[in-house]
């Protein structure tokens, strides 16, 4: 690649870094309002990082080069790395006494909307830090949507829910101009956050807690303002149902939500991945609630609320917790571990393998089996009424194989660092899927990653970035061929 591409990529990342630095003024204002001395940390961080970003942007300012796929891959990786590094600075300088590995892990977890944390004592943490975590979640969610809706389809590594928007048939496009579409999805994102905050406040949360939890919910992030997460609000079943609703809504394709809410297109809700996602949410939740009722004697209405909340939280890769579900029984632990990999829909803020890939993989296997029976027959791989072309099939299969190999490799490295098998596998899986809590007591819904060593935290940070950037987006820049002219 030529120097102009590097220069432009750095300029774009620096400009983004400048905006992120300015956003540090919001948690600074929160600390000032609540009388926390940590406001100075955000003020210094905003000044230093903003100045560095502005200087870099000015030094690399030039005319834009022709946009290529190579530049797209480079910009995406550089943007997310810069946001994570800048996001780590306030954590590192705060009164929480984090070393840089912990601060970087917390920032990566926030920006990638994973929700894993190394902070113990959230109930007494500075309010500015709590707001910064939620704000990074929220901004990361916008970045994820932009990635899935606008960039991934062009790079051919994801974004199937955007199929109609990139179709050559203009009648299938929801808006004639992409700027209108962008404003629509930002408006819906903001409105979902506001409605979530208002609902949470009406159901018993303070306004500060409600806003933080709403930002985490819509971004399917999972950071809470309390160590016990939603368990802090004991016996508030309406709150659990409300959170389940907003987590489910945020796991659906935003392109479909826009067509439904703005254009009133009911037919968009027939998207196969929506049907499949809602089906396995209901199946897993009902199975978990029946197990809780029959094995542990929990009243069914209570078991159903907690089961739907927990299952939705894991499948949407949000990571909130209302209880320590690792104590419910071995069946629930296995269910939670399987759900960790599955994820929500493409074009949403959810992570994981995603429902559309599961559909294509299932139909690919079925087509292969049919071909064994009738070798001369035509057995197309379909996604609903759409015939999936060979390139998409190959990319889905490549993603799945890479995903599982990376998960295995991450588990092996964590094992070499001294962690037991279940903790290693669970930590690698939850990081790669951007879920948050694992399924062992140490890193489960009632634990944190605070006891992890610095090398383990750096490894998990890398896995979180891999998972959030759809794996292939990162792997492609690690190949020597990518850097050749």
Detailed description of the structure:
By secondary structure, this protein is mainly alpha-helical. Helices cover 64% and strands 1% of the residues. The chain has helices spanning 3-23, 25-34, 39-59, 69-93, 100-111, 127-155, 178-202, 207-218, 237-250, 254-263, 272-296, 300-315, 330-342, 355-373, 390-416, 421-432, 454-468, 472-475, and strands spanning 382-383, 386-387. Strands 1-2 form a two-stranded antiparallel sheet. Helix 1 (3-23) packs antiparallel against helix 3, helix 4 (69-93) runs antiparallel to helix 6 (127-155) and helix 7 (178-202) packs across helix 8 (207-218). The N and C termini lie close together (4 Å). Mean pLDDT is 88; it is low at 161-176. This is Trk system potassium uptake protein. One of its GO terms (cellular component) is plasma membrane. Pfam families: TrkH.
How would the blueprint of this fold be written?
Layout: H1 3-23, H2 25-34, H3 39-59, H4 69-93, H5 100-111, H6 127-155, H7 178-202, H8 207-218, H9 237-250, H10 254-263, H11 272-296, H12 300-315, H13 330-342, H14 355-373, E1 382-383, E2 386-387, H15 390-416, H16 421-432, H17 454-468, H18 472-475
Helix pairs in contact: 1-3, 1-4, 2-3, 2-6, 3-4, 4-5, 4-6, 5-6, 5-17, 6-8, 7-8, 7-9, 7-10, 9-12, 11-12, 14-15, 15-16, 15-17, 16-17
